Amino acid sequence: DLTITQGAGDDAVESRGIIYYKSPNLLRIDFTQPEEQVICVTGDQLMIYLPAQVVVMTQQLKRHNDATLASMASSQGLDLLEKGYSIGYLDGPDPVPLEEGSNEMVTKLMLEWRTTEQGFRQIEMSIGKDNLIRRMKAVTPEMEEVQFDFVGIETNQNIPDVRFEYEAPASAYEIRNFLFEPEG
After folding, report:
1. Per residue in 125-170, pLDDT tens?
2. DSSP 126-146
3. Contact of 25 with 41, CB cutoff 8 Å
């Protein structure tokens, strides 16, 4: 289960959904809030369906071979974090409560951007006893807060590839390549 909270206090906006991931490059988030919203990465395409606007945004992605993808999903992703951020413990290496009053113990890391090219100024990452990311609290370049909570993580579930197929409603207006022109 995934919860994304943008902002803080009474102005916070919350999104909820179930996230599916299959190594090396399949991802799908089926949102329950906003209802029917979907983000899907099929390997060679990113699709975002926004039901409130009846719009599906698609982006062709560069195709990589399996060896490259496996590298990106493991060590290369960590290398990108290490190159883009200074990383250290928030309060030390010992586990601490996830938040005040919580019995859930995590190890907290603080990532501070090295350059303004990174997506976030800082990221507070909470790692559970299972070595999986439990929470990420981030600050955008515009000083906005975003929090990602991952609960009930199950690994190695043999998710079928068909789970990552998504067809937006025929009535949806499509915006193609909304991020950049497709690569060769």
Report:
1. 999 999 999 999 999 999 999 999 999 999 888 999 999 999 999 9
2. EE-TTSSEEEEEEE-TTS-EE
3. yes
Return the bridge partners of 113, or none.
85
**Model-level pTM?**
0.84
Can you read off the two tokens belonging to residue 87?
Answer: 């990383």
Rg of the chain over Cα atoms, rounded to whole angstroms, equals 18
What DSSP element (H or E) covers 87? strand 85-89
- What per-residue confidence (pLDDT) applies to 73? 52
Helix, strand, coil % (nearest 5) of the chain?
A: 15, 45, 40
How far apart CA 75 and CA 82 sit, in angstroms, is 10
Mean pLDDT score across all residues of the chain = 89
- Give me 97's structure tokens: 């409560």
Size (the chain), residues = 184
Residue type, 152: G
Q: Is 50 exceeded by the pLDDT of residue 72?
A: no
What is the C-alpha to C-alpha distance for residues 19 and 3, in angstroms, rounded to an integer? 10
